[in-house]
Amino acid sequence: MVAFARGNVMITITDLRKVYGQGEKAIVALDDVSLEVPRGEIFGVLGQSGAGKSTLIRCVNLLERPTTGRIFVNEQDITTLSGTALRKARQRIGMIFQHFNLLSSRTIADNVAFPLEVMGYSRAARRERVRELLALVGLEQRAHAYPAQLSGGQKQRVGIARALAGEPDVLLSDEATSALDPQTTHSILELLQDLNRRMGLTILLITHEMGVVKQICHQVAILEAGKTVEQGRVSDLAARPESRLAQSLFPRPQSYVAQPGARVVTISFAGHNADEPVLSNLIRRFDLNVNILGGNIEKFGDQRIGQLQAEFVGEQFDAALDYLKSLGLRVEVNV
């Protein structure tokens, strides 16, 4: 169970369970999921189709009501709310969708203004707020266009502007880039990252794409069959050879038989170590023969993290391992 923490936590989900149907026909979409989303961070939920991601994010604003469990958003237990109180709480939770969900008969400005109308803003206040929001997402020149006249990326920018209309505490992203091409996806993720940095906006996003997590997420939870199988800071998980995240990014060589007297070692690099000539220094210093089996370096936000699998042969093997560890590297000797 995740204990409810005040102050630095924006979303707390505790023992969340969602079951569709009853008896033998019951389908468990979420099975005792617990997680915390820190205030002002971008938290990714990663999983394949059917893992329960969409159900999870729809429970956070109670578009789906959980079977059991509790959800706190900005210290308010929304699972206890209904009617007017729930509608008011939802105004503080923005949401963007995979297929944009824009009103085709309304202009871009009117699409962004729609939630403001529902919230009772005056015409003058709506006009000013829409102007600010369209400028924020780079579409101030398209205010009088209609959705059919926009590209997919522009439509998603409208969706983001609309989701921010009520100045929410949280932005939920439901596979918001999966319908976009890679270049447009990159620009939308850069926009979300910019909003997070400039506004301190807390973002909870679901995705099946590792690239999304790598580009902008501070933390991630991996869902499989409705269960959380791993969660933590992206950089920490990527630097741990045994983590699911690292194993998907840095696959190990298949069925390798070491030479007589050799040991196979996995070295994890992070930060400045990823740019240092660690291996060449090691060879010279400890008179090792090194056979590189595989490796890769990935970029996570502004940080570079990598793994290298290599076969070491030499009498100073143990001293070489101690040296690597003294540099702050994670070292795993494959058995």
From TrEMBL:
List, alphabetically, the PROSITE patterns matched: ABC_TRANSPORTER_1 (PS00211), ABC_TRANSPORTER_2 (PS50893)
What SUPFAM superfamilies does the entry give? ACT-like (SSF55021), P-loop containing nucleoside triphosphate hydrolases (SSF52540)
Instruction: Note the InterPro entries from the entry.
Output: AAA+_ATPase, ABC_transporter-like_ATP-bd, ABC_transporter-like_CS, ACT-like_dom_sf, MetN_ABC, MetN_ABC_transporter-like, NIL_domain, P-loop_NTPase
Where do the ABC transporter domain residues begin and end? 11-250
What GO molecular functions are on record for this protein?
ATP binding
The superkingdom listed in its UniProt entry is Bacteria
Keywords on this record? Amino-acid transport, ATP-binding, Cell membrane, Membrane, Nucleotide-binding, Translocase, Transport
Name the Pfam families on file. Answer: ABC_tran, NIL
Q: Which PANTHER family match?
A: AMINO ACID IMPORT ATP-BINDING PROTEIN, METHIONINE IMPORT ATP-BINDING PROTEIN METN
Q: What is this protein called?
A: Methionine import ATP-binding protein MetN
